[in-house]
Predict the structure.
Amino acid sequence: MAHYAVRESPPLRGEIQVSTSKNAVLPIMCGALLTREDVRIEHPPELTDVHTLASLLSACGCRVRHDQGGLVIAADALKNPDDEDDVRAMRASVLVLGPLLSRLGEARIPLPGGCAIGQRPIDQHLKGMAALGARVTFDHGGVTLRGKLRGAVIYLDMPSVGATENLLMAATLAEGSTRIENAAKEPEIVDLAAFLCSMGAKISGAGTSTICVEGVSALHGTSWTPIADRIEAGTMACACAMTGGELLLRGARADHLRSLLFKLSEAGVHVQDTPGGLMVFGRAKQPFEIRTMVYPGFPTDLQAPMMAVACRTPGTSVFLETIFENRFMHAAELARLGAHIRVENRVAIVEGTPFLTGAPVRATDLRAGAALILAGLCAEGETLVDDGGGHIDRGYVRIEEKLSAVGGNVKRV
Ligand code: UD1
């Protein structure tokens, strides 16, 4: 658990190395369960979510070790975890379901329940597994899936990122061919599919709404470097848009961040795609409207950081959150810093103000925490961000060091 002391900062200047994507690494770690051979993941980000999942994989009988900057996972003695607490510790652990089922013919996890940003059900994961031939039973707060998987056509009611990933992994070892319709198209899915193909899987169409998988009898080990974290890069671009200045985001990919880059340029921030990464210049000057959508629409994970930007941008900005039903909890915390925000159901209306003043605030989730740190960079006096029990470390690698290195007044206390 940490607090961050943030003070008003000069325009940010310099370079930030973007870390490896959390949302790419977590499913890839689960994908390592699909083979008995060693899987090596290069440059895993040092995040608590990665440690938590590593401990769950150990509970699944894997040997997990750090080796010269990489994470090596060996799932040669795979089993279902004995202790359900390991699974319950994080939502992404539902992604072990597909690999456990396809390798062992049986998987059991506790049902994830609600979380700070909404209900987050797993019905689409389960519906897809049932279509692949799993028998699904519920008891004692958990769900058990059993059966030998056979290829099928699966239609997702909504393009869920997690369900697409889980079904993609399950289908790699199913007998025959699978087609996932209305699949999610996020870059992390494309990365997962490419990783699975490097293990011998036969997948086409990842990155489109129809993904086809030809099942194979076994997958082999591999070594993989996951993509850079587009959400971390986007958050840092928002930090620059708050304070002004000039940032080079090393490793960030413009093609993964188009929706944010359009919005930043509407706000008057300049962005340039260079061979070393993305250059971001200047402060947001005009208001903007954001509707969160599935990729390639505007990512829900960047809604909170962009709301911090809107708080200091002259004029009225509007946010419509369509992905999660309860993802404006940062609005009340931003208001403690002097922001003018009105929330009506899934809409937030932000009147930009020239002054914010520091105050103690609390992160209600990971991205809310980042938004509060960003707001603190533009608030007079000290903003003390309570990370709400470790939210920020779940998804940002040493955010205080990265921001301090470019002139941000941020300390972990
Ligand atoms: C992933 C990301 C998360 C991001 C989210 C949306 C990871 C580890 N996490 O989460 O950072 O905010 O995508 O881009 O990659 N839903 C159902 N039934 C299901 C599954 C989902 O109703 O079976 C709903 C959810 O409640 C939510 C929406 O679909 O409203 C999107 O969820 P989903 O795309 O599955 O997000 P995650 O994979 O959990």
The chain has a mean pLDDT of 95.
